[in-house]
């Protein structure tokens, strides 16, 4: 299946991407891909080092005539988001990604593609392997765990890199030159509850919210996409208010940085309410589907009668949690006052798990303004603490402040216009990039981010544009030729 990928142009790029995608590389389980990169560097006789957290650095000298130019750090992350459709049988820990060509797009069969940030990694591998590409001295930095905490970038020590310019290849629109990004922080609310025995006269149901588009919780947060956890909570809240619905179990969402596409709940109601409950759920389901008909036309809400479960969560805790999730902010919180159309602050209610006497609600809050980020964190904390949850924060990482006087920005802006006959979109983004973290230990390094067009990142609808990859590859080659002299 991946043979058709290897025949795409530029072959050097797509072949390296296919090689990489044959290696399982989930976040926090990067041992195999680290070894893959170490073997790759060694096989080409290049100086290859791995730091104590697992970041890999491969060094390649300048090609003849380029020795007097500044050293470039080319950087991408090795891990990928692992998401699959509910009906897809796939083991991310053991299987390579199964890719296919769909018109101008490369897709995966029912899973995330790994183009984020695999195409960046493949680009750097192709440059390192090349015999005929003109370039200055290169430090190829492959970081780990970008998607679930940026611990690779956080663990990178000062002094390891000697480069003057950093090219981060993790932007997902080919007409964009990234000069800034949002920071982020994980917010987790937890509490316990007692399980109560279900009395006689009850009937069980499962509720499934499926078919949402999902997407990147930073880059796609402004699109008004459906959040499966908020939709499920709306259904449960209505059922509780009108029919005394009781919750046995909820499992919604999977990753903090992905807008949740699916949520599943098991509930009970009084048997005598069965007909009215089904009628009401049909009405509210139709309303929600109508509201999201443009953003999420494939939304499906399935309500199925099952054998009655034995336990439900205690009544007072259930009421408080349903109200807290309803009140908690999801989506855009504020827009930037200084950069037009840029989301400043947002929150993604990413995972909701209720089972076996424990409630766990996991969020990812992002912002390009530290004070606004903490304002939203405090709002979430207050909301969840009101219902008895213990709220903790972790994984706090800084944003990347734009430098509009960047020398490499001037080079790339001019090159883009020369190659494409139009100006690039120079912008900050609402995603979390590693540049802000790396800049803490390398404050004088000139940084920029760019990449090929990738849509649907962090979801099984992830796809990479073939024509965009060709455009991007030409841009990369020209940038390397035009790196300023020391």
Automatic annotation (TrEMBL):
Keywords linked to the UniProt accession: Hydrolase
Peptidase M20 dimerisation domain: residues covered: 211-292
InterPro entries registered for this protein in UniProt: Peptidase_M20 (IPR002933), Peptidase_M20_dimer (IPR011650), Peptidase_M20C (IPR001160)
Superkingdom of origin organism: Bacteria
A Pfam family the protein falls into: Peptidase_M20
Keyword Hydrolase: yes
Protein name: Aminoacyl-histidine dipeptidase
